[in-house]
Design a protein that fits this description.
Blueprint (H helix, E strand, L loop, with lengths): L31 H21 L6 H15 L8 H13 L4 H15 L6 H11 L1 H10 L7 H18 L1 H8 L6 H7 L13 H21 L2 H4 L3 H23 L11 H14 L2
Helix pairs in contact: 1-3, 1-4, 1-6, 2-3, 2-4, 4-5, 4-6, 5-7, 6-7, 7-10, 7-12, 9-10, 10-12, 12-13
């Protein structure tokens, strides 16, 4: 049987861009000659994420499209995935290994097929692929030591969990996807159905606080990151992002992500920039 024709493009852009993130992406603090490569990686990850989060695609179709993105990285024609084609050229220009991109695609295949996480370790294993490669890619672009990977992984994992808490109701509603570990839900007396309520139940509030406690441990480890980074601009950007994570954790501690979206304000970004520039000097 002949293989079915592929669509003109496997990408399904959601319209989200760098301005929708909780952290700066390739900001003015990053070396000018590296910004385009940071943006290429972000665009690659964003388009893969949009495929995994598309509610109109079946899981098998999402995986097929993500596989096509990986094939493009490996040299397949790039017309069906412009973001992967641009990422391939970026990797050639910088000499960075493709593994971080493969790890990101692995995470989004999980998003397409896995709807629940058993415990904190299970969630951290997901973050190893969904979040840690972002920091590792940035560090490798700057030629930084792998000694910085551990606190970078902690920072990226913290940001990922904070994002899961921000979007816990929407993820359940749109995709039946729940990142809150089932073990914590059971311990705290919360149910999946609680995510459909207009405000957090006492049990769900306990789950959120429990995850914020663990995220606080990750952020504490992440504070070591700026001191391990040699590049002045990247060191300052890392310090800014650590402060943004601290601020978002506090907002989630005080807010209810079911009642309204808890997010950083413009004032948070300005204050984090000032604090980050000082800490990263």
């Amino acid at each position: 049987m002949a293989e079915p024709l592929l669509a003109a493009s496997v990408e399904t852009p959601s319209g989200k861009d760098r301005g929708d993130e909780n952290f700066p992406v390739g900001s003015f603090l990053i070396r000018r000659d590296l910004r385009a490569h940071v943006h290429a990686f972000y665009r690659f990850a964003r388009n893969a994420d949009d495929i995994a989060d598309n509610p109109n695609l079946a899981a098998a179709e999402k995986v097929r499209r993500l596989d096509r993105m990986e094939a493009t990285l490996d040299g397949a024609p790039g017309d069906q995935s412009p973001a992967a084609a641009a990422m391939r050229e970026s990797l050639k220009a910088t000499g960075i290994a493709v593994q971080h991109c493969r790890d990101i695609l692995h995470a989004f295949r999980l998003d397409a097929t896995k709807l629940r996480y058993a415990d904190w370790s299970d969630l951290m294993e997901y973050c190893r692929y969904s979040a840690a490669p972002v920091g590792r890619q940035l560090l490798d672009l700057h030629g930084e030591s792998r000694a910085a990977w551990t606190p970078s992984d902690a920072l990226c994992g913290a940001l990922q969990v904070l994002n899961h808490l921000q979007d816990c109701a929407g993820d359940r509603r749109a995709l039946d996807r729940v990142y809150l570990p089932l073990e914590d839900m059971e311990i705290c007396g919360a149910r999946i159905a609680d995510l459909a309520s207009p405000r957090a139940s006492p049990g769900l509030r306990r789950v959120i606080d429990r995850l914020l406690d663990r995220t606080g441990v990750l952020i504490a480890e992440a504070r070591q990151l700026p001191g391990l980074v040699s590049s002045p601009g990247l060191r300052r950007e890392c310090a800014v992002i650590v402060n943004l994570a601290e601020r978002l954790a506090r907002r989630l501690r005080d807010g209810d992500p079911l009642a309204r979206r808890v997010k950083l304000t413009r004032g948070d970004f300005v204050a984090a920039l000032c604090v980050g520039l000082w800490r990263g000097r």
